[in-house]
Amino acid sequence: MQTTAVDLVTVSRECGAGGSDFALALGAELGWPVLDGNLPERVAARLHMQCAAVRQRDEQPPGLFARIASTLLISPPEAPMQIETSDLLMPDSIAQAAHAEIVEAAAHPPAIIVGHGAQMILRERPGTIHVRLVGTPESRVERLVARDGGTPEEAAANARRINGQRQAYVQRYYHEDWADPLLFDVQFNTARVTIAQAVRCLTSIIAARSHANPVHALSS
Questions:
Q1: How many C-beta atoms lie closer than 10 Å to residue 50's C-beta?
Q2: What's the Cα-to-Cα distance from 64 to each of 55, 61, 68, 88, rounded to whole Å?
Q3: How far is the C-alpha of 187 from the C-alpha of 185, rounded, in Å?
Q4: Which of 2, 6, 70, 183 is the most buried (most CB within 10 A)?
Q5: DSSP character for 12?
Q6: Architecture of domain 8-212
Q7: Where are the domains of the chain?
Q8: From the CB of residue 158, how many other CB atoms can be counted at a distance below 10 Å?
Q9: Rounded to an integer, what distance in angstroms lies between the CA atom of residue 208 and that of residue 95?
Q10: pLDDT, tens only, 31-55
Q11: According to the model, what pLDDT value does residue 85 have?
């Protein structure tokens, strides 16, 4: 059984399950930095790109057209094709930069890292807890409407689209099932457990690990 003192948490989340709220609340409780909405800014700086362009493509695999067009890049030299490659390669470049930022954050703990396949990147790292937040479709739609407005139908369609992108992102770059329960140490259903309750539960686990390893415990 894993008993190493915890200094890093990864958070995977269904759209509308409250992953960002959970990460921020956990970070405030522990006094740990959170890598979430600020990750695109770091990726943009690393790639010397506009942050808006990174956010537009963040945590997304290349679209169907880009995947088809990218195969044309390996056409024979005599093939009379002129293809603009910058937009085709951008999602892969963003994913690679996000991976590098996550590895760098993990090298300077403590940290809480949201999404972007962090549970796969850091799956063998000691002192890491991998958390997943899920919820019923109804509970997630309710949270999205309260946060973003719009109709429940619009929120449900948006959630399906984003979840599909996140699943495809993890499959493309890490060849894993995004929802595989064996990738996670703890899973919370936020239709039944509040964000505050989930934070208290996880901080208890982290505290128990630290007490079991006082020499390695963080003085956060």
A1: 10
A2: 19, 9, 6, 10
A3: 7
A4: 6
A5: E
A6: 3-Layer(aba) Sandwich (3.40)
A7: 8-212
A8: 16
A9: 34
A10: 999 999 999 999 999 999 889 989 9
A11: 42
